């Protein structure tokens, strides 16, 4: 089941293409730390059969302190081999995410380097999440990202959650893609054997096709290919939490086809289905990849607009309404046109439930219907 964090990741990863590898890595680490709410983090990249330290971030230290620490620890290098008792190496070898709730109570790893770091710098490392950075096409590990000391809203140290693991699990592929996009990493990948690449590509394509089919079966409406109501129920509260934590706006657009019963009664349900599909295609054409279009039920739809202001949400809603009105369908020698009514609302910082915003958008839709249909209304 896809979670909201994955959707945000898909869109947000677009900004992580940078020719400067150091800048790129800092963007990636900062983003991952923000989403998972942790105090510190590091990224190590693979070179030959070694794992090399690259960057370090820590909110507990000043910029000057971090720069000094980076100069001291930039020579860190770990050989990739079995039985090193090192969490980063084991994450690479096992190709899986490893979390430790408290390094001082861990029996699996000794954390010699981390404990020495704590002693030298008056720091206390507790929880660690380590994830391998794996290419989605070659399945090769190019490094690891390590997140340290997750915090709750009151800055108390807590354990990494299942949501954190799911976010990193999906994000790691896009992080890797971003790193590979940088020139230095691309140069190292150019030495790969072409035959091997073709074989891996074929296998990956088969896996991607199978994965997409599973997603559609569970989360998508088979007729329109939009997400379904079940999917909205799964991600709604996660989106609300992200909006509050990151202080970004999420707008909700509810759309209903005007007089849809008349279409069905006049032309039949098959034509009604064509009308619904044509409207879904307008959503797909005019919304962003980060937007989430949902068939809510029958002729009613919901579009979630992450990181979108009120004015931009209303602008998009009117654009969809206008494109719908302009469209003339030729079905079974019948020229069919239709309109939509739209309600828009925005998630407020005071909203404790996603349903509050959904209900406001629904009331705004009712206003559009009452005022003559084929229009957009907003309720704050």
Describe the overall structure.
- It is a single chain.
- This protein has 380 residues and is α+β, with helices and mostly antiparallel strands.
- It has helices spanning 4-12, 21-36, 63-73, 87-94, 112-121, 162-181, 183-189, 194-219, 229-246, 260-267, 269-286, 310-326, 354-370, and strands spanning 38-47, 50-58, 77-79, 98-100, 128-134, 141-150, 227-228, 250-257, 292-297, 300-306, 329-331, 334-336, 340-346, 376-378.
- It is elongated and about 75 Å long.
- The two termini are 31 Å apart.
Question: How would you concisely characterize the structure shown here?
Answer:
The protein is an alpha+beta fold and 380 residues long. Helix content is 49%, strand content 21%. A six-stranded antiparallel beta sheet has the order 3-2-1-6-5-4, sandwiched between helices. Strands 7-9-10-8-13-14 form a six-stranded mixed beta sheet, sandwiched between helices. The protein has a two-stranded antiparallel ribbon with strand order 11-12.
Q: Which characteristics define this entry?
A:
380 residues; alpha+beta; Beta-Lactamase; Alpha-Beta Plaits; 2 domains; six-stranded antiparallel sheet; six-stranded mixed sheet; 13 helices; 49% helix
